[in-house]
């Protein structure tokens, strides 16, 4: 019954080629493949429509389908506006047919009998960055989308470890170096775009088979691989110019991270821990920011901060990877989302705790003031809230939780800034005590 419901209840032309082939060839007695296929279709139609319109998706018995028109009863699009906020609302309804045995559908749809699950939630309107990209000339837009200028969250996540390190290296009672913050902001924007270009060059064959990535420029043909390589060379050239503005120690340290940038896209093919490699790459700025100020690293401060940032990256990118886990399983792609499975929340708790411990250790080594520890407590609360409310089987919820990690970086940065301003009184007292003790000894 489920097989016929899936085959007749969904339009095969809307599936990816791999899903269509598996749908037509799988055996009726293969519950694992049936579950993956049903979940893939559920997640595709649950969150795969445009942000301007919602959708109603129904999985119905074959006998019911035969009495109704196929397209009008199987799935339809509808949008509605709330009266006050004018926020677009998405509504999804899943009707599961009765069965004499336990259902092999996903966990969210495993109850026996006919049921309806309604999910009504606000759908976020287009971001300012998306509107800016869409207003650019048509021949420029594909390149801006290739470097993800319309999705700036990655730039922020790359920039915050740099900002933490620069702010933590500021003198007691002083604001962080604005020139360095600006220089690293440019570098984060350019290098994040370069990393996305490298990733899309490696994964363009895979992106064709994943619903969420089928509109990327290298997949839809708006940019050729050769043009992407030329564009990548330009991005790396700008990144090199930014790096050359720093001291020699920083130039060597920054150039040594390029291997991680190139290797990361390959890791998802060989290990279930590509998020670890991404963490080591994305948080390199925690080492580079301090070195840009002093020409060397204080490992007692920088190393715990770097490891804390790495744990944070594993935390948020595991949540991000849950959006594509069904497609990844079918394509043989590895990730921590697949590795952790139903134990994801337990693992996330462990990495979140490790991040907080690293931040506390780094702050103690730096002698920072109490506002920093207040911000660390706020970050811990934010991470705990993410874990508690996370629904790993809801791609929209995973995307929202991932984006909210920008707030984590901002909270911690402000805590470091005010913590260093508060550090002045304590440092002056310590210096005076040391001077008095040295005079007494003499």
Automatic annotation (TrEMBL):
- Gene Ontology molecular function, alphabetical: 4-hydroxybenzoate polyprenyltransferase activity
UniProt keyword annotation of Transmembrane helix present: yes
Instruction: Specify the pathway.
Output: Cofactor biosynthesis; ubiquinone biosynthesis
What are its GO cellular component terms?
Answer: mitochondrial inner membrane
- Does the record's keyword annotation contain Protease? no
Subcellular location(s) of the protein? Membrane; Mitochondrion inner membrane
Q: Which domain of life is it from?
A: Eukaryota
The UniProt keywords, alphabetically, are: Isoprene biosynthesis, Membrane, Mitochondrion, Mitochondrion inner membrane, Transferase, Transit peptide, Transmembrane, Transmembrane helix, Ubiquinone biosynthesis
Gene3D superfamilies registered for this protein in UniProt: UbiA prenyltransferase
Q: How does it sit in the membrane?
A: Multi-pass membrane protein
Q: Where is this region: Disordered?
A: 95-124
Instruction: Give me the stretches of Polar residues compositional bias.
Output: 95-104
Report the EC code(s) recorded for this entry: 2.5.1.39
| Membrane-crossing residue ranges in chain numbering | 153-172, 178-198, 218-240, 246-264, 276-297, 303-323, 344-364, 402-421
For biological process, the GO terms are:
isoprenoid biosynthetic process; ubiquinone biosynthetic process
Q: Where is the signal peptide?
A: none
Q: Which reaction does it catalyse?
A: all-trans-nonaprenyl diphosphate + 4-hydroxybenzoate = 4-hydroxy-3-(all-trans-nonaprenyl)benzoate + diphosphate; all-trans-decaprenyl diphosphate + 4-hydroxybenzoate = 4-hydroxy-3-(all-trans-decaprenyl)benzoate + diphosphate; an all-trans-polyprenyl diphosphate + 4-hydroxybenzoate = a 4-hydroxy-3-(all-trans-polyprenyl)benzoate + diphosphate
Q: Give the protein's cofactors.
A: Mg(2+)
The family this protein is said to belong to: Belongs to the UbiA prenyltransferase family.
Q: Which NCBIfam families match?
A: ubiA_proteo
The task this protein performs is described as: Catalyzes the prenylation of para-hydroxybenzoate (PHB) with an all-trans polyprenyl group. Mediates the second step in the final reaction sequence of coenzyme Q (CoQ) biosynthesis, which is the condensation of the polyisoprenoid side chain with PHB, generating the first membrane-bound Q intermediate.
Q: What is this protein called?
A: 4-hydroxybenzoate polyprenyltransferase, mitochondrial
- Species whose genome carries this gene: Frankliniella fusca
């Amino acid at each position: 019954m489920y097989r016929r419901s899936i085959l007749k209840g969904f339009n095969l032309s809307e599936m990816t080629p791999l899903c269509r082939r598996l749908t037509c060839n799988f055996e009726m007695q293969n519950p694992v493949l049936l579950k993956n296929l049903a979940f893939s279709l559920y997640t595709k139609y649950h969150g795969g429509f445009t942000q301007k319109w919602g959708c109603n998706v129904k999985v119905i018995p074959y006998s019911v389908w035969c009495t109704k028109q196929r397209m009008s009863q199987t799935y339809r699009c509808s949008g509605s506006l709330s009266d006050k906020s004018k926020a677009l609302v998405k509504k999804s309804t899943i009707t599961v047919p009765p069965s004499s045995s336990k259902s092999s559908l996903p966990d969210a749809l495993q109850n026996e009998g006919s049921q309806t699950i309604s999910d009504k939630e606000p759908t976020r309107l287009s971001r300012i960055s998306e509107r800016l990209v869409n207003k650019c000339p048509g021949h420029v837009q594909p390149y801006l989308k290739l470097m993800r200028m319309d999705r700036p969250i990655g730039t922020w996540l790359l920039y915050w470890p740099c900002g933490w390190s620069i702010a933590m290296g500021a003198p007691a009672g002083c604001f962080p170096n604005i020139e360095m913050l600006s220089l690293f902001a440019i570098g984060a924007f350019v290098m994040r775009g370069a990393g996305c270009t490298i990733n899309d060059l490696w994964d363009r064959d895979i992106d064709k088979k994943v619903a969420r990535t089928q509109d990327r420029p290298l997949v839809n043909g708006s940019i050729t691989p050769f043009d992407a390589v030329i564009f990548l060379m330009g991005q790396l050239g700008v990144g090199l110019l930014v790096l050359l503005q720093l001291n020699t120690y920083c130039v060597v340290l920054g150039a040594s991270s390029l291997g991680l940038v190139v290797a990361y896209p390959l890791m998802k093919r060989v290990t279930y821990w590509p998020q670890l490699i991404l963490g080591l790459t994305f948080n390199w700025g925690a080492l580079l920011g301090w070195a840009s100020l002093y020409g060397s690293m204080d490992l007692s401060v920088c190393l715990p901060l770097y490891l804390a940032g790495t744990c944070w990256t594993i935390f948020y990118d595991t949540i991000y990877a849950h959006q594509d886990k069904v497609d990844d399983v079918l394509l043989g792609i590895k990730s921590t989302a697949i590795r952790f499975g139903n134990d994801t929340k337990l693992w996330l708790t462990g990495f979140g705790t490790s991040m907080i411990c690293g931040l506390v250790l780094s702050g103690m080594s730096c002698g920072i003031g109490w506002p920093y520890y207040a911000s660390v407590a706020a970050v811990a609360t934010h991470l705990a809230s993410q874990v508690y409310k996370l629904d790993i089987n809801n791609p929209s919820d995973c995307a929202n939780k991932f984006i909210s990690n920008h707030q984590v970086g901002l909270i911690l940065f402000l805590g470091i800034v005010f913590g260093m301003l508060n550090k002045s009184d304590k440092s002056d007292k310590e210096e005076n005590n040391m001077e008095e003790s040295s005079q007494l000894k003499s």
